[in-house]
User: What shape does this take?
Amino acid sequence: MRLSVWQLSTVILLSVLLGQNLKTRPNQAEAASQDVFGSPQVAISSYKNQRGSFILWADGHISKVETPDTVVSTLAQCVAIPAGEDPPPTVTRDNSKPQGSPNVPVGMYQTGQGSYVLFADGSCKKPLGDAGAASASPNVRSTSFDGTSASRLSGDSSILCSHTGTTGYFNLTFNPPFKHPPTVTVNAMQHHFLAGVSGPPSVSGCPVWTIQMVTPGVWSDQNCQFTVTAVGE
Assistant: This one.
C-alpha cells in the first residue's frame, strides 16, 4: 500500500504526539526511610562500657565481643532515653532532603550515664541491660569561677558555685549529680592565693575555701578566682 504525502504527514504527527505522552523510563520504586533495615551479618562498630565490650550490628542487635553469636539486645528492645539520663537534643528535620532510617544504627553515643545506639536519622535509643551501661571512661567536669561574684568564668555548666556568706568559703553543686562521690581538685588562679576542698565531696557537691597570703607565713580568708576539676562516675 502506498501512502500519500498527506497520509504520511499524519502518521508522523501522530507519532510525535504519542511519543510526547509516553513515559521514557519505567516507574521507580522508592522505599520510605522507616522501611529500611540493616543486615544482622554486618558489624557496625564495637564499644566498651562499665559492663563489658560489645559489638553493634547493622540490624540493631548487640552482642558481647567474647560471645558474638549471643544476642544481648535487639532493635525491638531499644527504648527512648530516659529523661533523667540527659538525652541529646532532637535533630531538626529537613524533609526536602533524603532521610536516614530510624532502624539502621550507625554508631554509639556514650555518656557517664549510659550507652546509646545512634541511628541514621540522628535519633538515639537505649539498648537492653548491660549493653546500655554507662561509659567506661570517667566523667570529667572542669570549670572556673570568680570568687568575688561566684559567677562562672568558663568551663562546664554542670558545676555551680555559691557563697556560704563567709569570705573565702563557697559551696559547689554538681547538676546532674555523680553516681559516686567524685575526686575534686581546686586551684587558685591568682598569685599569693591558695584554694582547696574544705570537706569531703558528695555526689551532689562539696565545700571549697580560698585564702590569701597577707605576709610571709600569715594567711587570711579571701575571695579569689579558682578552677575546679571533678572526676568520677
Observations:
- Residues 16-25 have pLDDT under 50 and may be disordered.
